[in-house]
User: Which sequence fits this backbone?
């Protein structure tokens, strides 16, 4: 028996704005009348490490999405999409920003960063639908590369049971007013991609 | 009213609603946000909120406040309670006047910690009640109740969230904020407040006699709840109770469940469950606190009961639990099919690891680079707890035990007869937290070591909190700024030199002098944390690689700044560069230049 309406896993690199995204989604869900449970990564991993947040809409239980249970995996970085792919359910959807961020283990030459196809092929195999998005470029087009997370939010908005107005309202409450216009554009660009 | 709140913010909200007068704490993941969330309300509600110098100090300040009748709370992470254990244990004897809540956040799985000790054991050890919230709502509700309970029993109460409660977010129903209620007055009562042996002995008896009252009071709380169904049962504490409820729902299984939110657990509800079932699984994270209790109780109420848990290997004693793990444990107990944990083999095979790393331009990287140049890789490098521990791959972090242990471990290594050079490192906040007695001890006992204070003017790792060296309090008010150099001299170090790690040569030269100094030498490597620098508007011109001069030697790449990449034959500096200029000093080919 299902124990939540929609389970989302957000993956990325510390500093990419994963926590801000969780907050926006959580606040929007509250507006929509859902009970929400979220688990956030704070602390050590935020120094450029791999980070993962969970958010469960219409859920009264623990904040962690069970492995194999996510309806949507929203990844702000391709390697991080694959790292947390086991959270996806077989019916799940993966939305992946294809712009890679190299960890220091790669920049210092200890490891190599795999070609994009090698990351996407297994993702394709294990979920129902994979959608790749050049969110970093779209954010630049929108006027600020930092708004990449909001491009991805726009893409996500088409796949979760929250209305655009609720998300935009939560977005406006969560970012400084002077960045709102760029962020709204970023949201729109992301939404159009999917 | 409902708000979407982080668990720690929900706890802060409860503290505010309870009319608390004094809030103290030392930053530590996963507890830091509680004090931070309260700071903005300090002046409006007349609350004293402070970042204390360490947890022992924090708890003692809170105790003083409680003894005047004010409500007080002291916040820390689990290992912080080790530092505060001395006042904590005797506090149970003296008891309290105003409600006193010790809020200690545990970190199963060591997400951001050096161990995963279970604070429920501390409550048991001290003989005080412990509340174990399952989610942010319970955490907010429990903290308000904890103050009442504390006043009723005249005992401190331990509130013990875990990472998945403190750093969970959810919709939380909040209430009215009431103002502080009491007129604080310290009433002299030597038999209570002066723990001479003659007073301590009777207070120990008083504490033991209170144990029955604790159990009786906790009988009616809403966080212990029993649902009787089939003759197989589950008993689970804190967040494990949520995992168990979800698992039972997913399995659609006919299983009785008792959720526990208090320690000591409720005897009545527990015996009711134990008498109803033939087999029970005890589900909790970390130590088998509940399990041992159930075993004891079953001897009386159902000696034939089959008890599954940590002892039988059904529930792990390390790391954290989750719904899938609990689901499979319950399914296994009832002979229902297990769910495979999904794995994607390519993730293990092709992905480069992405551990957290020092930021671009972090001065610690420069300090360690210089340290290694001066001391060589063969020297011994005890270290401490902070962002700098992330530099472990640079070869200058040989130890990390607990807050403040760098200087003392270095001293012990020297006193044992180790003859190589010893250079330890400790961050500014950690130095002020528990490094000071270690330095005093090193000076007093003539330790021939070099101590490096990595002074970046913040408590960076836990989220950039101010400390006594910064000149600011938690509420943003200006205060005295204590200089590491002055303190080090006052504690008895003769060789004390402050240096800017961005000036690589000067730093290397300073370390070389410290190394040959025949005594205790202290190097204060002073440069603002890059994140603080960015926030306060300090901008430096970024650097770039001049490909004509770059020979591809990789020296700069090996320095490990995330802003430096390597493509085919040349280094390249990306947009993350903060302009610290250190790599340009490392490059021997003059290939790294500032962008004019
Ligand atoms: S937060 Fe500050 S101290 Fe920590 S790694 Fe970044 S620059 Fe260094
Ligand atoms: S100047 Fe060099 S070391 Fe400093 S931040 Fe830029 S790339 Fe990194």
Assistant:
């Amino acid at each position: 028996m299902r124990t939540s309406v929609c389970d989302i896993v957000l993956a990325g690199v510390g500093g990419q704005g994963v926590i801000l995204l969780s907050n926006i989604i959580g606040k929007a869900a509250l507006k929509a009348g859902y009970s929400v449970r979220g688990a956030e990564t704070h602390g050590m991993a935020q120094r450029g490490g791999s980070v993962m947040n969970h958010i469960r809409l219409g859920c009264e239980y623990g904040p962690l999405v069970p492995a194999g249970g996510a309806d949507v995996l929203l990844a702000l970085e391709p390697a991080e999409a694959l790292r947390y792919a086991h959270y996806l359910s077989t019916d799940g959807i993966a939305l992946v920003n294809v712009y890679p961020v190299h960890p220091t283990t790669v920049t210092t030459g200890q490891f190599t960063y795999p070609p994009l196809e090698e990351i996407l092929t297994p993702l394709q195999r294990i979920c129902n639908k994979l959608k790749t998005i050049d969110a970093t470029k779209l954010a630049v087009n929108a006027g600020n590369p930092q708004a990449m997370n909001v491009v991805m939010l726009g893409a996500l908005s088409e796949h979760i049971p929250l209305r655009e107005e609720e998300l935009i309202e939560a977005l406006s409450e969560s970012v400084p007013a002077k960045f709102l216009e760029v962020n709204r554009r970023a949201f729109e660009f992301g939404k159009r991609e999917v | 009213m409902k708000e979407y709140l982080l668990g720690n913010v929900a706890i802060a909200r409860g503290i505010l609603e309870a009319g608390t007068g004094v809030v103290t704490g030392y930053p530590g993941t996963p507890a830091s946000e509680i004090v931070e969330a309260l700071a903005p309300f300090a002046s409006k509600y007349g609350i004293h909120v402070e970042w204390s110098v360490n947890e022992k100090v924090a708890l003692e300040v809170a105790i003083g406040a409680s003894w005047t009748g004010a409500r007080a709370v002291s916040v820390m992470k689990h290992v912080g309670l080790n530092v505060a254990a001395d006042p904590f244990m005797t506090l149970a004897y003296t008891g309290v006047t105003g409600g006193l809540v010790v809020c200690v956040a545990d970190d199963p799985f060591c997400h951001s910690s050096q161990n995963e000790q279970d604070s429920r054991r501390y409550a048991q050890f001290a003989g005080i009640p412990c509340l174990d919230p399952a989610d942010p709502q319970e955490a907010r509700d429990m903290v308000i109740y904890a103050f009442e309970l504390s006043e009723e029993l005249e005992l401190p109460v331990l509130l013990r969230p875990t990472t998945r409660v403190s750093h969970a977010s959810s919709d939380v129903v909040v209430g009215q904020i009431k103002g502080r209620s009491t007129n604080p007055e310290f009433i002299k009562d030597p038999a209570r407040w002066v723990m001479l042996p003659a007073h301590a002995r009777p207070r120990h008896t008083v504490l033991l006699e209170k144990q029955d009252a604790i159990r009786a009071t906790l009988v009616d709380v809403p966080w212990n709840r029993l649902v009787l169904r089939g003759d197989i049962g589950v008993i689970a504490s804190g967040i494990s109770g949520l995992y168990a409820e979800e698992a039972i729902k997913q399995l659609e299984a006919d299983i009785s469940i008792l959720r526990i939110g208090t320690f000591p657990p409720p005897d009545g509800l527990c015996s009711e469950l134990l008498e109803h079932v033939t087999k029970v699984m005890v589900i909790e994270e970390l130590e088998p606190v509940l399990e041992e209790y159930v075993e004891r109780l079953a001897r009386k109420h159902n000696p034939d009961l089959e008890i599954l848990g940590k002892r039988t290997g059904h529930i792990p004693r390390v790391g954290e639990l989750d719904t899938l793990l609990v689901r499979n444990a319950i399914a296994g107990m009832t002979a229902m099919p297990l769910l495979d944990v999904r794995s994607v083999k390519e993730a293990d095979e092709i992905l480069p690891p992405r551990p957290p790393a020092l930021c671009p331009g972090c001065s610690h990287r420069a300090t360690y680079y210089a340290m290694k140049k001066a001391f060589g890789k063969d020297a011994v490098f005890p270290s401490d707890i902070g962002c700098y521990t992330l530099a472990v791959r640079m070869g200058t972090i040989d130890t990390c035990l607990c807050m403040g242990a760098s200087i003392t471990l270095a001293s012990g290594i020297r006193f044992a007869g180790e003859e190589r050079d010893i250079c330890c490192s400790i961050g500014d906040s950690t130095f002020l937290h528990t490094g000071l007695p270690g330095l005093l001890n090193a000076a007093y006992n003539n330790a021939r070591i070099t101590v490096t204070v990595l002074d970046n003017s913040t408590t960076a790792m836990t989220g950039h909190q101010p400390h006594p060296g910064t000149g600011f309090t938690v509420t943003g008010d200006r205060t005295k700024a204590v200089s590491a150099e002055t303190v080090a001299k006052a504690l008895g170090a003769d060789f004390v030199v402050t240096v800017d790690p961005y000036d690589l040569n000067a730093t290397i030269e300073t370390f070389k002098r410290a190394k040959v100094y025949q005594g205790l030498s202290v190097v204060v490597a002073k440069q603002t944390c890059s994140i603080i620098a960015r926030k306060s508007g300090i901008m430096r011109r970024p650097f770039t690689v001049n490909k004509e001069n770059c020979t591809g030697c990789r020296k700069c790449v090996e320095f490990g700044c995330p802003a430096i990449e390597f493509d085919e034959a040349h280094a390249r500096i990306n947009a993350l560069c903060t302009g610290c200029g250190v790599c340009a000093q490392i490059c021997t080919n003059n290939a790294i230049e500032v962008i004019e």
